Amino acid sequence: MTTPSQALAPAERAVQLLGADLSEVALRRHLEGLPGVDAVGLEARAASLGTRSIKTTSKQAALDLVIRMIDLTTLQGADTRGKVRSLVAKALVPDASDPSTPRPAAVCVYGDMVQNAVDALGSAWSAGKDDGINVAAVATAFPAGRASLAVKLQDTRDAVAAGADEIDMVIDRGAFLEGRYGKVFDEIVQTKEACRRDDGTYAHLKVILETGELVTYDNVRRASWLSILAGGDFIKTSTGKVQPAATLPVTLLMLQVVRDWERLTGERVGVKPAGGISTAKDAIKYLVTVAETCGEAWLDPHLFRFGASSLLNDVLLQRQKLTTGRYSGPDYVTID
Amino acid sequence: MATSAETTSSESSAASAPAASAPAATRPTSDRLSVPKTYKLFIGGAFPRSESGRVTEVTDARGAFVANVAKASRKDARDAVRAARKAQPGWAGATAYNRGQVLYRIAEVLEGRSAQFVDELQRVEGLSAAQARRQVEDAIDLWVWHAGWTDKIAQIGGSANPVAGPYFNLSVPEPTGVVAIVAPQQQGLLGLTSVVAPALVTGNAVVVVPSAAAPLPAISLGEVLATSDLPGGVVNVLTGDPAELAPWLASHADVNALDLSGAGALDWVELEQLAADTLKRVIRPVPGIAPETPQRILALTETKTVWHTKSRL
What we know:
Order of helices and strands of chain A: HHHHEHEHEHEHHEHEHEHEH
Structural class of chain B: alpha/beta
Structural class of chain A: alpha/beta
Helix content of chain A: 40-55%
Strand content of chain B: 15-25%
Strand order of the largest sheet of chain A: 7-6-5-4-3-2-1-8
CATH class of chain A: Alpha Beta
Radius of gyration of chain B: 23 Å
CATH class of chain B: Alpha Beta
Number of helices of chain A: 13
CATH architecture of chain A: Alpha-Beta Barrel
Shape of chain B: globular
Strand order of the largest sheet of chain B: 7-6-5-8-9
CATH architecture of chain B: 3-Layer(aba) Sandwich
Oligomer: heterodimer
Number of domains of chain A: 1
Number of domains of chain B: 1
Distance between the termini of chain A: 49 Å
CATH topology of chain A: TIM Barrel
Largest sheet of chain A: 8 strands, parallel
Largest sheet of chain B: 5 strands, parallel
Strand content of chain A: 5-15%
Largest interface: A-B, 9 and 11 residues
């Protein structure tokens, strides 16, 4: 607080919205000037969107879309190279009994496993192009984010150098809750810069807010704006390591922010709920929420993702039910 | 101490008895609203309504209304199978001795509530008091009979096999998993017990469709099971139309065996064919109620055979 008007790292979006002399004060004024969230209304809206009944051909389309939106994830301390290989195998052939099953958008692993994932994907790896499966890596001292900025940036650069197409970074929740928005902002901007590849292109940056630690909906709205202003391509709810993880109201709130950002600037930012979405039924509730909040254009893996591991199997079971007409069981999908 | 406590309580009850009965005597009985019971499903240890919201009317032997009973849909059947699958490993993992204690506990609790079952059987099946009481007593005895088998069935169904080599070769019966059952249509309580108990002995979990005409004892049995230390989900009761539910259970890929004991009136060959798609064990319909035998228990098991080297001493 001794130098409150200290200039922040330049970020195009923030400069355009808040003016060229970007300062922590200007940032705080903007974020704290955002209207408060009507928590009761938000939860009621989310609950009512969750009651829609999606049947037959719509359900078939929804299930396929959910699969295409999944970031198939393994983020355990006990991850082995073999575990990553089998995760990739699952992404390549989600359901061996039905070759028409689409593939998920990406596999999401720790930074040191990126090389293994890239090797296992082989020719199916997108390598920055639009077709194929992306490799996403969590970085910046995931999940706590408690490390120095230098370490966080090196973590990011390592993952990008190994081939990560997408970087899932965590914000410094401690600094955010202290009100040091400028520190959080700077870290996102610099992480974004660390996502730069040698050829000048950037790995996609997903900013994890860890909404379970932000306590209030107002904070979620501020953190969403902060992440977008700093240059995030995606805003993501959670690491999956903290309860509560993704919830429908929080995701609805973040969707409202990206919708407002699009209205303001014409630019589209993605949303990724992660953690705790394990059934096809829940996933379809999210799709309804996306379509009703941001419009059907947002029903696209470039703009909406699910961070999940067990969700895929449940979607496959529902898919098998639709194609065979009888209920399937866990013996007919892989164990993960 | 015990004597004095008894004296005190009997004194106080004797003293309060006239006071308590006085208002009851002066008040006309028609004053009090009746509290009819809602008969719901029993899934995963809870008593939910049918997802479909449907109910069917149950009448007594003379056609008068007795109660509305939930009419399960295919989605309730799906939920029940999921609950059974979740509960099955825990039940199978309990020691045989413990399973026996739990089954015996069911008999105990049933004994304590026998008056309720006698009453329901009289109303719904039109039995005399003596017939109803005999059916309840037979059902209780059947639970006790099966309770005894939990830690003995492996001795009957398993074996030490002679093999040409220095190996122990042991076969043991293990539960097949989730068993879907169409219970006998007659003698609601006894029929239900005769199909559920043998499945539980070895550690299977059960989804049962009770008698369509007389489902009340099945739901009341659910209440007994819920208070007998049986883990939630090990037995799931779906009242409803067996002709509607059975095909979904027969074709369900997460059901391991299909007991069609009470499906004689259905197109059970069709059900058997549906079950064949996923290699289920099938027990064909029997007239009336099948006698209790160890073979009936072993019909819902798989044999695991283990080879183990014999040491050379």
